[in-house]
Design a protein that fits this description.
By secondary structure, the protein is of the alpha+beta class. It has two domains: 89 residues, no CATH class; 169 residues. 28% of the residues lie in helices and 31% in strands. The strands form seven sheets. A five-stranded antiparallel β-sheet has the order 6-5-2-3-8. A four-stranded antiparallel β-sheet has the order 14-21-11-23, with helices on one face. The protein is elongated and about 85 Å long. 20% of the residues are buried.
Length: 363
């Protein structure tokens, strides 16, 4: 082999070996930095060490992986293990959203929760002798949950329940001072917004082709509705939701499929579905709670002025369908475009406000 070639190969081998060693050193250095950084972020929590168990009545709920959920109301046991319950959460091991989140501890003082720590993964979960005299939760307590009207909840005798030594974690809902017995729901026609695309746009997202800003329009709509309704002689009403942004966008995937209005089936040609992708549909709606006196006035209000025909732009939307499929010529009367709210709809009816009530009760 040529002498110079041997020298070049030898030098190349040395350089590659140096790069290899340098890479290993860099990886080790980075790992050390990451480990050190994560170690600094590790939070050590002695869950009970700041609690004065002589001041109040305390109960601890522990839920331990592979062991179960326990109820501990023995004050002597709690005091003896004041420094034993340790829950360490490391950001290195803790993956938000992963696995069951109920493991951990919850402490009650005088039947109300004063602190809790739960998660899916703990770096350390030490509980000393707390389980030695603990009772299985399900043998002592039961979860109670209600989603009812004020009238139904008051049948539970809430004042008595709030003072009951058997009810834990009870929070009485804040009831509306006014009984809204009716609701009006107005769904406005969709706003068909023309869009285009660029090849370098991430995920091929649609780009609005005109100056329509869905959120700015939603805020404007909200202000206009509030201003107009404040001028009506309405007695009692309130917005159930806030139309300060679009309620939903019909085609996040940028494709609107076509359906047959008569059958509800997807329209196909040569077994392929028909669709357009040069529009997105922005949809807005408002729900109002009211009393009987205000109901008829709200139903009679002119809701059509908020999204007029020109703004809705449905004619251009259907023209784009005809342009894409010139030999098929679908008619607006027989074609349904996915997600399109064609007309203004006003629905009203009796309403019954419901409230949540949840707590745990001794069996």
């Amino acid at each position: 082999m040529n002498k110079w070639l041997k020298i070049i190969l030898s030098v190349g081998a040395i350089i590659l070996f140096a790069i290899f060693l340098g890479g290993r050193w860099a990886i080790r250095s980075l790992k050390k930095k990451v480990d050190t950084s994560l170690e600094k972020k590790t939070v050590s929590l002695h869950f009970l060490n700041d609690i004065d168990f002589d001041n109040g009545n305390y109960v601890l709920i522990l839920e331990v992986k592979d062991k179960g959920k326990f109820w501990i109301d023995d004050k002597t046991l709690l005091k003896a293990n004041k420094d034993s319950l340790k829950i360490n959460v490391s950001l290195f091991n803790y993956l938000p959203g992963e696995g069951y989140r109920g493991y951990g501890a919850m402490l009650f003082k005088d039947r109300q929760v004063i602190k809790s720590k739960h998660g899916g993964v703990f770096n350390t979960f030490e509980y000393g002798n707390l389980l030695e005299n603990a009772q299985p939760f399900d043998s002592v307590m039961v979860h109670e949950y209600y989603y009812e009207s004020r009238k139904e909840l008051e049948k539970l005798n809430l004042d008595s329940l709030q003072n009951s030594p058997d009810a834990f974690g009870l929070q009485i809902p804040e009831f509306d001072s006014i009984n809204y017995n009716y609701q009006v729901k107005v769904t406005f026609p969709s706003v068909a917004v023309p869009v285009h695309y660029k090849e370098d746009t991430p995920y091929h997202q649609p780009i609005v082709s005109n100056d329509f800003d869905k959120d700015a329009f939603g805020r404007k709509l909200n202000d206009q509705l509030k201003n107009d309704l404040s001028k009506l002689p309405l007695s009692n009403y309130r917005f159930k939701n806030q139309p300060n942004k679009n309620a939903w966008q019909s085609n996040y995937g940028s494709i609107l499929y076509l359906y047959d209005k008569n059958t509800g089936r997807e329209i196909r040609k040569n077994s392929n579905p028909l669709w357009i992708d040069n529009f997105v549909l922005e949809n807005y709606e408002i729900e109002i709670l009211c009393d009987k006196e205000s109901l008829e006035q709200l139903k009679a209000h002119d809701w059509s002025k908020y999204i007029p025909t020109g703004l809705a732009n449905h004619e251009a939307l259907f023209k784009s369908v005809n342009k894409k499929y010139p030999h098929w010529k679908p008619a607006a009367k027989t074609v349904e475009i996915e997600g399109l709210q064609e007309n203004l709809t006003i629905k009203s009816g009796v309403f019954e406000q419901k409230y949540e009530l949840r707590f745990i009760r001794k069996k």
